[in-house]
Amino acid sequence: MTMWKYRFVCKLESDVVLNSVNATEGFHQSLDYIPGVKFLGITASKLYDESSEEKTMALFHDGSIRFGNAYPLVDSEKSLPVPFVWATPKNAEEFQDIYIPVTMSKEREKEVLNDKVRGGQLKQVRKGYVSMTSGKIITPKQRFSIKSAYNDEKRKSEDSKMYGYHALPKGTKWVFDVAGSNKELLEEVKQVLQGVHTVGRSRTAQYGLISIDFQEAQQLSSEPVQIKEKQVWVYAESDCAFMDEWGNPTLQPKAEDLGLPKGSKVILEKSQLRNRTYTLWNAKRNTKETQRPVIEKGSVWCCEVNAEVTNEKALSGIGCYLSEGLGDVLYNPSFLEVENGKLIYSFEKQELEKVVEKIGHQESSLVNWVTSLAKKKDEKLSIEQEAAGFVAKYFNNYKGLGKSQWGQVRRMAQQFSKLDDFYKYMFGDAKNPDFGYTKHGVNEHKWREKQRGYILEGAIIDLYKNKEFEGQEVLDFVKYLSAEMAKKEQNV
Fold first, then answer.
1. Which top-level group of life is the source organism from (predicted)?
2. What does the DSSP assignment read for 449-474?
3. Residue 374, Cβ neighbours under 10 Å: how many?
């Protein structure tokens, strides 16, 4: 069977809120991925046609087209949820030593605990995404904010209506696949998905804006799975939902439900499974869907097989709700290969990076204006801090100098447009070192007393040469300092 996989990159243009449950009260963490059903919804808003039943069923209902979950983009590669069979020494910050305890004998486990863990424990890895190419494990951070409802009539916040949001941060990039055997339908999906869309909660406010770009199309074909010791590891790349023979939801699928040949058997004592229950909200019907118990992404089944295995079922998906991104699995992935119970790979822990857009010459005038305002604000704050430090340190030296002297200094700083001219007026230059407002004239003695002139001159030189202030910034410092000194003189 030939399958096609279309890969897309989703960039978050704003924070995105994807609650793990539909409840509106209490504390709820956001999902650390974007479910495939969100991309199905975007496509359905444009292509859902009840008059074309066969096409609509293939696109959105029978699993012919599968909208995969979006996971973090790491070094141009799609990362995958960490498998729950992994374990690391407790309190270890890095992922240098990763073990799969279910593959170790009791003697080997004791040896590892005594040698590597030094009498401690192995802790199951439950969070994060692994990138095999870059050798990194990524843990997406979430941004928390508190919002309140707004009362239009009273023009103030609503009483007793506060909301806390955990959101995936703006600027991060995520990767998802849309797979199927019908290339014509995939091309239609491709045209709809590309562009700007909204997903998640509070889309009419400040959340949920995303942009999607097509990356590549890849043709997949069925291949045999290499089997060791008659065992196959089935890794859940996404959540998986199953029904028993009576049509009821079950969390105990048989080996055949996992896509393996008849006669295969699930070895539960070597498997690591986690489950959860959730309910989707159907915006079209304006109501909740049925409750879904699922095996969580990252779960791993260990199965005993007695026949050859191909990845055909892995390509088409297992279980129910395939169109919505559930049922993606891998057979014997490379990140489950071990030697004496220890993973043959090591990984570096890293946070999910944001996409930083550089501001260039072609940016809009609005961006340049806002940037310049921010720069001026920082410069002003730095100037005020320098002046405040000077006043705190030297005010006693200048006590009694008089407001008129500082007024004159301020007027000269405003009059001269160049720092060199102001400096020459105040302190002289190399040719005339004794010429300057602070070094001759009727007020010379006031500035020589307690070395007032030399202290001010030294502060100006320090700002310009050592702290690399620009000339205009130094003049602004003098203006601000003169005003502050005059105020202090008045209050003495």
1. Bacteria
2. GGGHHHHHHHHHHIIIIIS---HHHH
3. 10
Q: What is the DSSP letter of 64?
A: S
- State the pTM of this model: 0.69
Nearest to 89 by CA among 105, 101, 81, 80: 101
Angle at CA of residue 20, ends 16 and 22, nearest 5°: 100
Q: What is the domain partition of the chain in residue ranges?
A: 2-221, 231-335, 365-491
Query: 3-state class of 306 per DSSP?
Result: coil
What does the DSSP 8-state code read for residue 255? G
pLDDT at 359 over 80: no
CA distances (Å), 422 to each of 118, 366, 368, 409, in order? 70, 35, 31, 9
pLDDT, tens digit, 9 for 90 and up, residues 3-23: 899 999 999 998 898 877 665
Q: Which residues contact 222 (CB under 8 A, 6 or more apart)?
A: 1, 310, 311, 312, 315
Which residues share a beta bridge with 67? Answer: 178
Round to whole Å and give the CA distance between 313 and 260. Answer: 8
Beta strands 122-124; 87-89: pairing state: antiparallel
pLDDT for the residue numbered 380: 63
CATH architecture of 231-335: Sandwich (2.60)
Please give the average per-residue pLDDT across 396-416, as a whole number. 87
Structure tokens at 1: 């069977």
Q: Which two tokens stand for residue 13?
A: 């243009």
pLDDT digits (tens, 9 = 90+) for 272-283: 999 999 888 777
Contact 210, 196 (CB under 8 A): yes
Report yes or no: 485 and 406 within 8 Å, Cβ to Cβ: yes
**What pairs with residue 66 in β-bridges?**
179
